[in-house]
Amino acid sequence: MSQAQARYPELVTPRRVEDGRREDGVLYAGTPRPSGVVAVAWRHGSLTPERYRGLGTFRLEQFLLWGWYDADIVARRGWELDPAFGNLPDDTIHVVVGNREGRILAYFDMQPAVIPPPGQKGAAKATPRGASSHATNGHERSGDVTVTTPGRPWFCCEFESYGATVFPSLAAMREVPLGEIRELPCLLRNGTARRPIVALAATYEAIYAMSRVQVDPALGITVTVGIMDVEARAVTAQLGIPVLYAPLAPVVRNGLPKYWRPELNDPGRFWPFVIATPDLMSADAAEHFQRIDALLAHPMAGLARALVEFARDTRQRLTPRALPRIRDEDSELWTADPFWGMAEAGASGKSAGRADDDGTAVAADLAGMAVSATASAAAQGRGAR
């Protein structure tokens, strides 16, 4: 069955238990929107066999659709599930955005750092805050382990591409306990989605859900790190999310598994980023996310125009303040500009278009920033997914 027909109702619609509570393993359940979109967050270690197989299949097929995995290697191995799925820590958070029919429209996960440094079989231990005591992957809770601790676990993007010095290059990150940091490896939208307005709504819903998961005190997340390509940076900019980027951080390792396409490590294709939880919890942020919530609650007939107007309003921006950009000899350039060094057309975020009922013009309108930035990136030898 192709991803255009695949449905995963068990991942999109969690069951209720007798007293009205959500079933175990549901960390977040968003409000169903008039557009039909809803977001749910699951704990990896609590997935039922059916959900485990469904999400592992979805990931594999989407990674193939987007050209991230080598299709020949996957075919030779006969894989039916994402080969990386079984290696995820139990306390990985999966955020699924789908519709009433159970079709997954957008997805991302948030992982703790657990990869031993190159050449080591073990690493300094740091259990994620908010992790359940029965699913700590052998890690002992310790607030003393930070991104500067020798032998500490690495995040995926460090092991695969950027090494262990990129996040400590932001001086304010050096004091954050490692167990309070999660990595968002990718923001994925369904490569077979054909209705532009629904795909946009699902992507926006995913980012809104990320912000709600990150500020949940039960999960104990102080900072989210990861890497973004130009399209993901454009979407976060349209929603005014407070992000810092390291656009000049070099790729210093080729630690990608052999089934990943090697061009994903092309220099400049992705930028490391950080999002601080305090920046999502200020008074300004509370009002901002209330506006995003109201935006996503628009009836389908008015959603297209509302998305365009929100993205065009330059006042709808949060400034990252919680991690000061203090430069020292160990610092990379960190900037809040998602199009730093690119042509002004990409950075402006302005486009001309109208709000069609089917969302086609809206897609062009909102994607204009990403498209022009992508062209600028290509001219500089930089790729964008």
Structure overview:
The protein is an alpha+beta fold and 385 residues long. The protein has one domain (108-379). The chain contains 10 helices and 9 strands. The strands form 2 sheets. It has a 5-stranded antiparallel beta sheet with strand order 1-2-3-4-6, covered by helices on one side. It has a 4-stranded mixed beta sheet with strand order 5-7-9-8. The radius of gyration is 20 Å and the shape is globular.
Features of the shown structure:
single chain, 385 residues, alpha+beta, 9 strands, 30% helix, 11% strand, globular, disordered C terminus
User: Uncertain segments of ≥5 residues (pLDDT<50)?
Assistant: 123-127, 129-141, 344-365, 367-385
Count of separate DSSP helical elements = 10
Helix content: 25-40%
First-last Cα distance: 25 Å
Write down the overall geometry: globular
Number of domains: 1
Secondary-structure element pattern, one letter each: HEEHHEEHEEHEHEEHHHH
Strand content: 5-15%
The side-by-side strand order for the widest beta sheet comes to 1-2-3-4-6
Class from helix and strand fractions: alpha+beta
Q: What characterizes the major β-sheet?
A: 5 strands, antiparallel
How many β-strand runs? 9
Alpha-carbon Rg, integer = 20 Å
Mean pLDDT rating: 83
